[in-house]
Amino acid sequence: MADWADRYRQKWTWDKIAWGSHCVDCYPSNCPHRVYVRNGRVMREEAAGDFTPIEPGVPDMNPAGCQKGASWSQMLTGAERVLHPLRRVGERGAGRWQQISWDEALTEIADAMLDAIQEAGPQSIVRIGTPGEGGTQSMILAGGVFNRLGVTSTDVQSEINDFNPGLYATFGRFDPVASNDDWFHSELLLIWANNPVYSAIPFYHYVAEARYNGAEVVTIAPDYSPSAIHGDYFVPVRIGSDAALALSMCRVIIDEQLVNEAFVREQTDLSFLVRTDTGKFLRQCDLQEGGSDAVFYFFDARRGCIAEAPRTLQLGELVPALAGRYHATLAGGASVEVEPAFVRLRRRLADYAPEDASALCGVHPDTIRTLARKAARRRTQILLGWTTGKSYHGDLMERAMCLLLALTGNWGKQGAGIRSWAVGMFDGPFLLGTKPAPGQEVTRQMVAGQRAMIEAMLAQDPTLTEEIVIAEMSYSGVLPLHAVPSAFFWYHHCGYRARWNDGGWNDASMKRPFDDYVREGIDKGWWPDSAQAQTPPRVLFEIGGNLLRRQRGGQGMLLEHLWPKLRLIVSMDWRMSTTGRHSDIVLPAAQHYEKPNFPYTTPDVMNLTLSDRAVDPPGEARSEWQFTLMLAKTIAERAKARGLVEITAGNGGSVRLDTLYEDISFNGALADDDAVIDEMVRDSAVMGTIPADTTLATLREKGWVRFTGWGRSPMALAQASDLRPDATHSPFRWQTEKKEPFPTLTRRAQFYIDHEWFLEAGEELPVHKEAPAQGGNYPFQITSGHPRWSVNSMNSTSRTILNTVRGEPVAHINDRDAAARGIVNGEPMRVFNDVGTVIVQARVTPAVQPGQLVMYNGFEPYQFEGWQDFSNLEPGMVKWLHLAGGYGHLRYRALHWQPVPIDRAVRVDVAPVSGT
Ligand code: SF4
């Protein structure tokens, strides 16, 4: 009999090792793992830790992993796993299910889709844009049928709201992303509206290493967050007042003459002349009959005259003035007074002297001055999170932060800038749906054709850039991104119209009813993509997402307003989520390690990371690609039985139903998961974003490969810097080094927005505004945050992870607030407002401010008493100003400018449960 040592050794033996990762929205993810298999089951996984150094002197990215990833395999056999297709028995949400075959499920689904198509058109089928708890498979491959039919696909950005509207308004792109190792080059790291200790676990080490390298680290947050602990300064800002703090820092920088004027002149619109009579930019159409409305002017201080601003950042001999008042002669002969936008900015900042701003933001005036001086003198990077984008006036906060960087010359060089998120580089999946045939010769021809088109446009207008050309293509819908802005779907079908018109919960500075802005935006043709969202919905798909947990406004809004309109609700997931529980049919999905797949590819990490099929999916679980092909086949069969051969797709083209399977699978050539994944990898190699010899087979040897080029996706091109094999990546170097224009109306980083609604709102320049009392006039504000313990709600029921925390949802409350209300640490408390009530365990701590409630998100509603989670307290407001359009870059395109839902600073009150 083996002794204990042999038994221990036996425990650490395996039959095979595969490459794995977690293709989920743990952004930036892409941590390569080794997955160990014995007897057909995954026994454990570990971070591969095999990244090689990129830039000499900069630490490598190893080991890249987190506690969720290290215990991921436990979810493969978890109790919530769905193993077979299920059909609801009894009422929706009753929790009673009948196991059915894939054939039965697909036939029912195909019939419901064909009924919807014949009665109301393909637009009556809705695919929810979801963050995709399944990477390339669920985001791209699951869309094969839906994209062909032109169903209503809601925009993932408005579903999840990881958008930074202030960055977008300023730069015409919201997605600058330095590679995480670039943080090492910073001299001042401002962790602002962010908590990377929780939200960037694999890469937080760069903050510590930058500090070891001499950087100072400042955490600006209302609460003494886990990221504040290891910093040099903690700046406790009052909730929602970050714009006041940033603007006051800008005021100090101007007052103390610390402005990098050359940078401001070259990179921004602050020298552009504004008419004092209208508050609008002086345009060519003001000065010449038939002139352009996109040509602007500044006063050239060298020549002493008004000069046309170049459409690039190349100033040559020009010296745009930042001060003074001038006169311009209009086309009709009249004279108007004009002044640089910078003059207006100085007047705006008159309200933000440190002593005045301190009263708004709660930060001592000396601290404001100290921070401003540091930012002006150092290579400064703002590690921005997505809290700002989820705040009502978060766009103003972000515009003020960008202004701080502009005044101090802090972008377009290593260690400087501001961050959001971007995906891209892995272009193969996006090409797949547009290819007429498989194989790389076809790809080469398509790439050459697109290249020729871009070259022709660049030749016509040499001031354009490839990024601007590609952005224009996505504005006009040429790129294969099928989406409609979700806000209009919610407005028409989900009961939000009444809420958004509630004056008490809305922006106090809004001058007209919300509906006025909706009507005007649609009448003026600013939202053509919204028309599709008006079609009454019949069939809804949620694939790899959890709509009823995520929806701002709570599951109640959708269950009450949307659900009764739907004849069939289909959820495809590896587990029984809250959304699955309220569906009619639940389909079993393969998990990670059970299918070949890729996480979202991002400049944070710069790698294409394979997550391979280490084991077979259990039960009848299938990959999303197999689901797509089975659905295509069934629709074709059922359509033929109805005599239905061809239909008009939602996008107006015609689509054959009888050959749907053959068309999507390329006559079966790509029917296998390995085949379609290999095709996407080879196509990406042809497109130059990964080494030319990369295939699925080579990835199976190495696990990951570093990107070699940006490719053609808009978010990748928005990085606007050369992708170097031996240097960290910092965005916007094409602006500072090559003087390429920004993709904005003014072709500059735009701080003055003279859109008529921005002028109406008084937001033509950044300003501080108080958040409206969303949810009612209550004394507490919820600030929420990215959790440490789960990726969205995926790991929220993991016993291993729950054992590291309190085992159930908690809300953090200030100790004095708790004492005043008789709330006891570890006991349940009632959190309530005009929208709803939630019972949650109190975590009493002096680390949060009085009047603040921190509720980290991610728990499933069914983990709460009464199955009501935090979203039940959120009204789900959107900012009316984000309905503005028809203005340069302020136009809808998928994943970009659009109204997004707010969930920060919702007003609530609290009470002990015993006192209710
Ligand atoms: Fe990395 Fe995400 Fe996996 Fe954690 S869950 S190890 S962050 S890929």
Give an account of the 3D structure.
By secondary structure, the chain is α/β, with parallel strands linked by helices. The protein has a seven-stranded mixed β-sheet. A six-stranded mixed β-barrel has the order 25-29-26-28-27-30. Helix 3 (102-120) packs across helix 26 (624-641), helix 7 (165-171) crosses helix 16 and helix 10 runs parallel beside helix 16 (394-407). It is globular. The protein binds iron/sulfur cluster. Iron/sulfur cluster binds next to helix 2.
Which molecules are bound besides the chains? Answer: iron/sulfur cluster
Shape: globular
Secondary structure category: alpha/beta
Q: Helical proportion?
A: 25-40%
Largest sheet: 7 strands, mixed
Quickly count the helices: 34
Low-confidence runs: none
Strand order of the largest sheet: 5-4-20-19-18-6-7
Distance between the termini: 63 Å
Strand content: 5-15%
Q: How many distinct beta strands?
A: 30
- Radius of gyration, taken over Cα atoms and rounded to an integer in Å: 27 Å
The residue-averaged pLDDT reads 95
